[in-house]
Amino acid sequence: MRKLWLDRVFLISGLMILLAACAQAQPTPTLTPVPSSTPTDEPIPVTATAPAPEITAEATEEPIVLGVTPLAGSADPPPLDITLPDGWESGYDTFALFDIDALRAIPLAVYQGPVSGGTGTIILMWGFPSLINANPFATTETPDNAPEIYIDGLRLFRLAMVDAGCNPGTDEQRSYRLGNKAAFGTQFAIVDCPESPDTRGWFAGVQEGGLNFVFFVYAEPIEIMDSVQNDLQAILDTVVFRVTESE
């Protein structure tokens, strides 16, 4: 699933740019090289949920099968600034996820580009709810905003990042950085996949302005991860959140 929707995010974004150019209209690309930071003058008001993708079914005498498109084909950029290296691109979409309690539409941002020896990828999922309010892995030194976001990251990792047939694994809870914010997550590996290449990396999440954000960071081929993790962390260090509380 990871490879299929990752490829489609960039395919849909590229087609939108092409169609806009053919129509000679003012384009609003969702896949663009980002040579430097893209600041906004004011914080971007956002809501904590995205509209659910349309579900359709045709009347028939046979059992009804619901058809759900995994990617809606459009989404707004997340409420943050990030500086990408030369040659990196970004794409945005809305991912329909069969979550633990419901079918849920989760905004998705994909940042991808060259790193030494391969390709680096950063996947951001944001605006999703926390389904618990306690962290069974917490200690007396765990910060207040760690409980839900770490468990959320584990949940989204298993449900959205791991293709069928893969062998996933995660480590213990760790502390990370997202810009100047303390974030919480862990290291992960995804191996023995029938279609997707093996990879490993980490995820880090934070709660900001009432919204949840989780970044999944990895590189391919798997052998280069040790040598490029500092370069990938340097990208996360540029993140500046621009969120205001929704009224």
Describe this structure in words.
With 247 residues, the protein is α+β, with helices and mostly antiparallel strands. It is 20% helix and 33% strand. It is built from 3 helices and 13 strands; from the N terminus they run H-E-E-E-E-E-E-H-E-E-E-E-E-H-E-E. It has helices at residues 2-22, 146-161, 225-236; strands at 32-33, 44-45, 80-81, 89-98, 103-115, 118-126, 167-170, 174-178, 181-191, 199-208, 211-220, 240-241, 243-244. Strands 1, 4, 5, 6, 7, 8, 9, 10 and 11 form a 9-stranded antiparallel beta sheet that branches. Strand 8 (174-178) and strand 9 form a beta hairpin. The longest helix is centred in the first third of the chain and has 21 residues, at 2-22. The chain is globular, with a radius of gyration of 18 Å. The two termini are 35 Å apart.
* Overall number of strands: 13
Helix and strand content put the structural class at alpha+beta
Mean pLDDT: 75
* Anisotropy-based shape: globular
Which regions contain 5 or more consecutive residues with pLDDT less than 50?
A: 14-69
User: Number of helical runs?
Assistant: 3
Largest beta sheet, briefly?
9 strands, antiparallel
Radius of gyration: 18 Å
Q: What's the helix-strand series?
A: HEEEEEEHEEEEEHEE
Distance between the termini: 35 Å
Helix content: 10-25%
Oligomeric state of the chains present here:
single chain
- Strand coverage percent: 25-35%
